[in-house]
Design brief:
Length: about 180
């Protein structure tokens, strides 16, 4: 297992359109393991392969939600290879989203509240599930990465510039502190 470096804006590789997985081998399983380790270490709740520089349609998600309020986070690792969304609802849900590639920045993004998702596992088996809540939002956010889209691309130009400026400022401050 290995923690991989996470690409951050404005790295042009984040705009890559990822390619479908066609070979379900040990290398794919290794990539998924490394992505989980990288995501947990960050820490984050979702990661797309392109965020570690691999342009393949591979996502890992673990919402790590506690069983009860204020309880210990419970791990629930989910793997999505070649994911597709069917039947997105017209009803939208708004979440204050963040992204490991846009560190420490958050903004409200609206997306379909419920989706029907289809994906493959690391052995090539197909799965389908209805999703809502944070899982639906997170899967849509991660799937955007496969098309080279970041959550800030859903914001108005003005709002996006504000987020990127704030990120730049915080990076500078960190540089001074270090
Ligand atoms: Zn992201």
């Amino acid at each position: 297992m290995a923690i991989l470096p996470i690409l951050e804006v404005p790295d042009p590789r984040l705009k890559t359109i990822s390619q479908p997985v066609t070979v379900f081998d040990a290398e794919l399983k290794q990539l998924v393991e490394d992505m989980f380790e990288t995501m947990y270490a960050a820490p984050g709740i979702g990661l797309a392969a392109i965020q570690v520089g691999v342009p393949k349609r591979v996502l890992v998600i673990d919402l790590q939600e506690p069983e009860e309020e204020d309880g210990e986070p419970v791990r629930d690792p989910r793997i999505f290879i070649n994911p597709e969304i069917l039947d997105p609802s017209e009803e939208l849900a708004s979440y204050n989203e963040g992204c490991l590639s846009v560190p420490d920045q958050f903004a409200e993004v609206e997306r379909p509240a419920t989706i029907h998702a289809r994906w493959q596992d690391t052995d090539g088996g197909t799965h389908e599930e209805d999703m809502d809540g944070l899982l639906a939002t997170c899967l849509q956010h991660e799937m955007d990465h496969l098309e080279g889209i970041l959550f800030i691309d859903h914001l108005s130009r003005l709002k996006r510039q504000m987020v990127l400026k704030k990120l730049q400022k915080e990076r500078k401050l960190k540089g001074v502190a270090a």
